[in-house]
Every structure is written in structure tokens, then in C-alpha cells.
Amino acid sequence: MTQEIEIEFKNLLTKDEYEQVYHFLPFKSVELIEQTNYYFETEDQKLKQQGSALRIRKKNDQWTLTLKQPHEKGLLETHDSLTEEEANLWIQDKMTEKPAVFKQLHELGIHIDDLHYLGSLTTRRKEVEHEGATVVLDHSLYYDQEDYELEVEAKSHTDGKRVIKQILTACNIPERKTDNKIKRFYKAKLQSE
Questions:
Q1: pLDDT in tens, 124-159
Q2: Engineered SS bond to 98: which of 80, 84, 113, 186, CB 3.0-4.6 Å?
Q3: How many domains does the chain fold into?
Q4: How many degrees, rounded to 5, is the angle at CA 158 between CA 5 and CA 67?
Q5: pLDDT of 13-66, one tens digit each?
Q6: Is residue 99 part of a domain?
């Protein structure tokens, strides 16, 4: 089973702030990565009610099914690899069971037949290493929305908080309460209906 604890800090940015951070750190020298998240939920939003999210991510022609769950140190991520064919079946609401994720879903009381496809969010991402953390700049597109985000992934809560505060202070950017991508996706989906 592939599992990891994700400790991350996020801050939404304006387009101008995104450009500031882009020039503050060496983002020019790294490759742009495009990834698409395909989100799934039950009709009665059992995952959301438990603070969890289920997605398939396509990145570099790799397809990964990931369940994110709350954890005392951050988020517990459980992963299974998918073939492109399996991913396409999922998007058509023809889910195939995968061992690691389905073990966790079972523990949450969620059955495969209750899941359905919600929609997708595409992100253009750049990542650099900075002071022992991974600093990410994201430009995301979903429904008729787009947003810009600074994300810091670290091995500890203390390091992540320190690095994001340092970048925000250096670029004179206010700290903003920032929902994760799935919450922003849900909000845009509701507004589009």
C-alpha cells in the first residue's frame, strides 16, 4: 500500500503576486508541469462530510487514484496506480476496485457503487526546492474560473510555516486563508449549476 503524510501550506495569489514569486525564486529554470485532477464523490457527499477527497491525477502520462483523509500531522494520502483505460472507465462512472484506496474507502463506509464523477481541474505547475521544502506555483483552471496559488510542502509543520511566511514577507503578499483545490472546485461547480 502506498501511503504518505502530506504537510502543506497554501496561499492564494493574484496574478501580479504570482509573477512576483515567480521572479523571487528560480522558477524560470524549471519545467512547466501540466496535471489534471478528476474528482469523485457520493451523491450525499460522504467524502466531503469526513474531510476527505478522492481524485485521479494525470501527470506525465501517469494516472494515480488518490484518497486524501485528515490526519493529525496533515493529510493522509493513499495511492493506487491506474492504467489510462481504467482512468477513462472511472470518468464514465465505471469504477474498478483498487486495493489500497478501496481498503480506506471501506473503513469510511463508502461503497464503490456510490461514487460518481464530478468534473476536472487542470493545473499548470512549477516546483523548486527552497530551504528544505518544495515550493510550488500553481495556475489552475476549472469551470469558468482560474486562480493562482503558492504551496509549500515540507517534512514538518514548523519548516513549512517558516518557508511560506518567508516568501510571503519577502514579496509583501498578505497571508490568506486558502481552501484546497477540491473545495475551490466544489464552490465553482455550485456556482455554475
A1: 999 999 999 999 999 999 988 999 999 999 999 999
A2: 80
A3: 1
A4: 20
A5: 999 999 999 999 999 999 999 999 999 999 999 999 999 999 999 999 999 999
A6: yes
Rounded (10°) angle between helices 15-24 and 157-170: 110
As a whole number of angstroms, the distance between CA 24 and CA 128 comes to: 11
Q: Which of 146, 126, 145, 144 is nearest to 134 (CA)?
A: 126
| CATH number of 37's domain | 2.40.320.10
Evaluate whether residue 55 is within a structural domain: yes
Smallest Cα–Cα separation from 122: which of 97, 92, 147, 102? 147
Please indicate, yes or no, if residue 191 is contained in any of the structural domains: no
Contacts of 189 (CB under 8 A, 6+ apart): 118, 119, 143
Q: Does 181 reside within a domain?
A: no
Q: Residue 6: which domain range?
A: 2-175
- The pTM for the full model equals 0.90
Asked whether 38 and 90 are in contact (CB, 8 A), the reply is yes
Strands 2-6 and 74-82: antiparallel
